[in-house]
Design a protein that fits this description.
The chain is of the alpha/beta class. It has 11 helices and 9 strands.
Length: 321
């Protein structure tokens, strides 16, 4: 979502699983894979964030690494910021979907040089505030943040303490929402559902009953195919407007999602490193796999196999020559 989730998420681009999306705030770096950085072994360890789009990336990469290149692949679920620590320490080899963490990039890529950029994923992420399209059609002016207070009473819930509810996903996502509510003087309360999966469940329940809701959300995300949503325009994003999270009053940026590798893995990771550098797919590809996992309830491996079987020419181009 997705989703930093200051450029959130809530995963992107993405769905349930891992909570998919989402994932607690605990530092998981101690739970490293026994195969990470294994000398002389044909293994690779991938970080999996807690939104389904990120799980879809890893599922397809893992399937091809194992079935086409003969690797043993281990996956470790780590929250967004701790994942950078794990990557720097070699506890994991690669992050396949990062939504933008400038502080971590400056520390590990520019200063310590223990992490290197792995190229774009091919998917562009965007976080924002959304309402269901059926409500936006009834009340077109809600798509401007200046009119949100007008609808606060209609968006109240038992959890929002007499104010309108702004539904967020996991507390582990880095979001600007609490600061935005305060700084824009909005009569709303940020309510965390706990995970991307829980957030999706609540949004689907609202939609089934045609109730209005306001939610922190992101694209790409498979749910948008089932519950069409319309973005509420916040004050426009400008470079540097989010530099001080406490004073922020602007929208989230649009973020080309990036891959990052442990520096040693990037140099000596062999075919796995070469393959992951070439791994680049589309929003439609990611949503196709995410939908199979989160909505159709296929296992990640089965969803990956289904996609791989139907897109041979696409992934063949990712294989090392």
């Amino acid at each position: 979502m997705k989703r930093t989730h200051r450029y959130a998420a809530v995963v992107a681009a993405s769905g349930a699983l891992l909570a998919v999306t989402g994932c607690g705030a605990a530092d998981m770096t101690k739970q490293s894979s026994p195969f990470a950085n294994a000398k002389g072994a044909k293994t690779v360890t991938l970080s999996v964030q807690s939104w389904v789009g990120a799980q879809a990336n890893v599922a397809v990469a893992q399937y091809i690494l194992e079935h086409e290149l003969g690797y043993r692949v281990d996956t470790v679920q780590v929250d967004e910021v701790p994942a950078w620590d794990a990557l720097s320490q070699g506890r994991v080899d690669a992050i396949l979907e990062d939504w933008g963490h400038p502080d971590q990039e400056a520390r590990y890529v520019k200063d310590k040089k223990t992490i290197v950029a792995g190229g774009g994923l091919g998917v562009t992420g965007h976080i924002g505030w959304f309402v269901p399209t059926y409500f936006a059609k009834q009340h077109p002016d809600i798509t401007n943040w200046k009119n949100l207070n007008k609808y606060a009473d209609q968006l109240k819930t038992a959890e929002s303490g007499g104010k309108g509810q702004l539904l967020d996903g996991s507390p582990s996502y880095v979001t600007n929402d609490k600061a935005l509510v305060e700084n824009l003087d909005l009569d709303y309360q940020v309510v965390f559902s706990g995970s991307e999966a829980a957030q999706i469940t609540q949004m689907k329940q609202f939609a089934k009953q045609k109730k209005p809701f306001l939610s922190y959300w992101y694209t790409p995300q498979w749910l948008s195919q089932q519950v069409p949503m319309t973005e509420v325009k916040l004050p426009p994003y400008k470079e540097g407007c989010d530099a001080d999270p406490k004073k922020i009053t602007c929208a989230y940026p649009t973020t080309p999602l990036q891959k990052y590798f442990n520096a040693d893995f990037a140099k000596s990771g062999g075919e796995a490193s070469a393959f992951l550098k070439k791994f680049r797919w589309t929003t439609d590809d990611q949503n196709e796999v995410s939908l199979l996992i989160a909505d159709k309830k296929l296992s990640p491996e089965a969803a990956a196999k289904k996609w791989v079987d139907g897109h041979r020419s696409e992934w063949k181009a990712w294989l090392p020559k």
